[in-house]
Automatic annotation (TrEMBL):
Reactions that this protein is recorded to catalyse: L-homoserine + NADP(+) = L-aspartate 4-semialdehyde + NADPH + H(+); L-aspartate + ATP = 4-phospho-L-aspartate + ADP
Function, in words: Bifunctional aspartate kinase and homoserine dehydrogenase that catalyzes the first and the third steps toward the synthesis of lysine, methionine and threonine from aspartate.
EC number: 1.1.1.3, 2.7.2.4
Keyword presence, Translocase: no
Protein family per UniProt: In the C-terminal section; belongs to the homoserine dehydrogenase family.
Molecular function GO terms recorded: aspartate kinase activity; homoserine dehydrogenase activity
Subunit structure, as described in the record: Homotetramer.
Name used for this protein in its record: Bifunctional aspartate kinase/homoserine dehydrogenase I
Co-factor requirement: a metal cation
Domain ACT: 402-480
Pathway linked to the protein: Amino-acid biosynthesis; L-methionine biosynthesis via de novo pathway; L-homoserine from L-aspartate: step 3/3; Amino-acid biosynthesis; L-threonine biosynthesis; L-threonine from L-aspartate: step 1/5; Amino-acid biosynthesis; L-methionine biosynthesis via de novo pathway; L-homoserine from L-aspartate: step 1/3; Amino-acid biosynthesis; L-threonine biosynthesis; L-threonine from L-aspartate: step 3/5
Length: 816
């Protein structure tokens, strides 16, 4: 005997019923089949709605019922044309189900009362109608089929709404029925049963799976197949995790854990009856019958992954019973659970700290209010005496659980779980793990569920892939190059580093372009110009509210306001990658706050390009200090612009023209006065000194400007005009140096807590003398590099190299 159950979607339309019957016909060729069917998709909800409307005195139930009747009539007519011999009789039998439902609802309408008993009877109409259609049509598939009323086989108590099954009587009735009904195919309505008095009961929502499992157990079936609209039990809810995949083989216990925690393909009580008898349970897809599906069995082969699946259950409230009066006194938990049990409140999760100071239980949100009343009443005396606190409910929570038998005795699973969630700013409110180690449950905020499940799915199932979500602000010179590089490198990043880097948003000071699935990086300039307007504050809110895993804010502006949003983002575990130097050179307190937020919330704050563009200057300095070295002195040329200008200026072309060239080639700051005034170099040496461990402010850096003061009065155009007017000043600087056989370099120096920047004549043979083009150089003198400095040298400015430095920081942040 084989038992095949078809869910609501598998029988939702005439076409789907045909597909289901084709599957049954194939199975029937192998041996007898019990075909259990759910109601046509959506019918049960509609019937509940109808009953409730009638109870409220809303006469619209009549119209809804006649629409339901019509939907069923049309389905039967499509499957069995009116010209067929018994078609009229079959349609009349079907119509009778809805006439009965209408009569029931009329009664409910008159009395304005809908009892659970009446509702069970009303809901049964859905499965009765669907099974009648299927049984009628089965004959056309050359199957010897009969319709079997489940109420004659499955016996329950009289707890209407969710009756408990009398397994022994069910087995007896089913066995006897089988002796008298040798037909090859039984078509049985799922979900419904009857009590000892013959009154219709139901087995709980999703109960058709349970009907099938009960019959499989009663008939000692060789297998149970649950036919649904997905190809098996998945590693995670596919609506939340795109890369979720079916689990090929799984144990009964694992399937039970997963189904309890939201894997909706299986109604949790289904597993018990088949597990007891070791009957293999398949979950298969009616719409892709050749897919393997999931086989639930006693001893599946050891899975390749330690975790079999990740599940979640929403709508959770935590109830925290807390107080010093509980410590060491037996009986508190007993009283707590008894108080909840009296109200028939199901406890989903329990945790107790070893200090015995608090017990925390998770319940369905709708049970929270009655639970609070019941528990506060139970402990009224202790609460009045101040020995325990009144019950504290915490709402809007969810459970996310890892499930897998291989987790047992496998160290590091919880560590990985906590690490992955922590890195993404998902706070864990409570944890539960039984000694069986098959399930590790975490309670988190409901709004973090999607992110949490995706993060965990990546951590446990996609060792080869990690999704990274970028929010890019300020696609100017550097930003546009960065986007070009990202577009080019995306396939390489996925293949070589397992990083799926997606640009989710690009914003400039006017518009913001967003696509949560990743923007098309070839069309962004045109699309951004058309995109809606957005403020910086809104951009920050967008990043926070999207709550995507591995989010990185990339600041490629020079804007102080942009630097002002880092702290809020870090506090939400959003990593920051910035070539904008404003934050790292702002007040020391702000710089230190960002560093500490980065540590506290496990989110990178990286700004390697702040000094020397893509040169590994900050990284080298960090390596030195982290390994215990002490930086005593630094000497450096840190301005690509000034090095370019003094390397090219020989009096043959005006000084201002060469500065313009440096700007055109993308070496200067958006405001070139920052470079020429020495301010940009001062920011850089300040950042290096801070990274070396010094507490310094910008005002501590001595800036010796070589510009005539008039050049810094007015706007950028006035700056160029004034430089042209002071050409003789620049020429004199050049000639003085040349006469002395030296070169002009704008040098930054740091020693023993003091720093200064200024123009110097550098003699041949000096480490700073031979510095070409827009190059930078940094000499580190440390306790380990005493006489010969550690030297970092190379191109120190330019959009392309800076973008590649930002890119490298993104990869660093992503791989953390
Ligand atoms: N060019 C270089 O060699 C290097 C540059 N950097 C830094 O890179 C940053 C960017 O430089 P560039 O790309 O040359 O400048 P840019 O002026 O070409 O680009 C900056 C972009 O930011 C946008 N922006 C400004 N304020 C904004 C706001 N509030 N919201 C959104 N967008 C805003 C601007 O519209 C512009 O598109 C600067 O902070 C600079 O210090 C760092 C190292 C080297
Ligand atoms: N304007 C800067 C570029 C990067 O910081 C420079 O010229 O060095």
């Amino acid at each position: 005997m084989q038992v095949l159950k078809f869910g609501g979607t598998s029988v939702a339309s005439a076409e789907n019923i045909r597909k289901s019957l084709a599957i049954v016909a194939q199975a029937a060729a192998q041996g007898p089949v019990v075909m259990v069917v759910s109601a046509l998709g959506g019918t049960t909800d509609a019937l509940i709605g109808v009953g409730r409307a009638a109870a409220k005195g809303d006469a619209s139930y009549r119209e809804t019922l006649s629409q339901l009747a019509e939907r069923h009539r049309v389905a039967l007519q499509e499957l069995e044309p009116a010209s067929e011999f018994h078609a009229e009789v079959h349609q009349a039998e079907l119509a009778m189900q809805f006439d009965n439902a209408a009569a029931l609802c009329d009664g409910v309408f008159a009395l304005r009362e809908l009892s659970t008993r009446t509702l069970d009877k009303l809901m049964s109409c859905g499965e009765l109608a669907s099974s009648l259609i299927v049984a009628t049509v089965a004959g056309y598939y050359e199957m010897e089929a009969i319709w079997v009323d489940a109420r004659k086989l499955i016996c329950t108590n009289s707890r209407f709404g969710a009756a408990e099954v009398d397994i022994a009587t069910t087995k007896k009735k089913t066995t006897i029925f089988k002796e008298h009904h040798p037909q090859k195919v039984w078509v049985v309505p799922g979900f419904i049963a009857a009590d000892a008095h013959g009154a219709t009961t139901t087995l709980g929502r999703g109960g058709s799976d349970y009907t099938a499992a009960l019959l499989a157990a009663a008939l000692d079936a060789e297998k149970l197949e649950i036919w649904t609209d997905v190809s098996g039990m998945m590693t995670a809810d596919p609506r939340l995790v795109r890369s979720a995949r079916p689990i090929a083989r799984i144990s009964y216990q694992e399937a039970m854990e997963l189904s309890h925690f939201g894997a909706k393909v299986l109604y949790p009580p289904t597993i018990q009856p088949v597990m007891q008898r070791g009957i293999p349970l398949w979950i298969k897809n009616t719409f892709a019958p050749d897919d393997y599906g999931t086989l639930v069995e006693v001893a599946p082969p050891r899975a390749a992954t330690v975790v079999q699946g990740i599940s979640s259950i929403g709508n959770l409230t935590l109830l925290n019973l807390e107080g010093s009066g509980m410590v060491g006194i037996p009986g508190f938990s007993k009283r707590l659970f008894e108080a909840l049990a009296r109200e028939r409140i199901n406890v989903i999760l329990i945790t107790q700290s070893s200090s015995e100071h608090s017990i925390c239980v998770g319940v369905n949100a709708q049970d929270a209010a009655p639970a609070q009343v019941a528990v506060d009443e139970e402990f009224a005396t202790e609460i009045a005496a101040g020995r325990i606190e009144p019950l504290r409910p915490e709402k809007d929570l969810a459970i996310v659980a890892l499930v897998g038998e291989n987790m047992k005795d496998h160290p590091g699973i919880s560590g990985k779980l906590f690490g992955a969630l922590g890195q993404n700013g998902v706070n864990i409110r409570a944890i539960a793990q039984g000694a069986s180690e098959k399930n590790i449950s975490t309670v988190i905020r409901a709004q973090d569920v999607r992110k949490a499940i995706n993060v965990l799915h990546e951590a446990f199932f996609e060792a080869t892939k990690k999704q990274v979500n970028l929010f890019i602000l300020g696609p100017g010179n550097v930003g546009s190059k960065l986007l070009e590089q990202l577009a080019r490198q995306q396939p390489h990043l996925l293949e070589k580093l397992g990083l799926q880097v997606r640009v989710v948003a690009i914003a400039n000071s006017r518009h913001c372009l967003v696509d949560e699935n990743g923007l098309d990086l070839t069309a962004w300039p045109e699309e951004l110009a058309q995109a809606p307007a957005q403020t910086l504050e809104e951009f920050k809110e967008l990043i926070i509210s999207r709550n995507l895993r591995n989010s990185i804010f990339v600041d490629v502006t020079a804007n102080p306001a942009a630097a002002g949003i880092y702290a809020d983002l870090l506090a939400k575990s959003v990593a920051i990658v910035a070539c904008n130097k404003v934050a790292a050179s702002s007040d020391y307190a702000h710089y230190a706050q960002l560093k500490s937020l980065s540590k506290e919330f496990n989110a990178s704050y990286l700004f390697e390009t702040n000094v020397g563009a893509a040169l590994p200057v900050i990284g080298t300095l960090n390596d030195l200090t982290r390994s215990g070295d002490v930086v005593r002195r630094m000497e450096a040329v840190l301005s690509g612009t000034l090095n370019f200008v003094f390397n090219h200026y020989d009096g043959s072309r005006p000084f201002a023209e060469i500065v313009r060239q440096a700007q055109a080639e993308g070496y200067t700051e958006p405001d070139p006065r920052l470079d020429l005034s020495g301010t940009d170099v001062a920011r850089k040496i300040l950042i290096l000194a801070r990274e070396a461990g010094q507490v310094m402010e910008m005002s501590d850096i001595e800036i010796e400007s070589f510009l005539p003061p008039a050049c810094l009065e007015g706007n950028v155009e006035a700056f160029y005009t004034q430089m042209a007017a002071h050409e003789s000043h620049f020429k004199a600087l050049y000639e003085d140096a040349t006469v002395a056989g030296k070169r002009l370099k704008f040098v930054a120096r740091y020693a023993e807590g003091r720093a200064a920047v200024g123009l110097q004549q550098v003699a041949p043979g000096h480490d700073l003398y031979d510095l070409r083009g827009k190059d930078n150089v940094v000499l580190f003198y440390t306790d380990r590099y005493v006489d010969q400095p550690l030297v970092v040298k190379g191109a120190g400015a330019g959009a392309e190299v800076t973008a590649s430095g930002v890119f490298a920081d993104i990869i660093r942040a992503a791989r953390l």
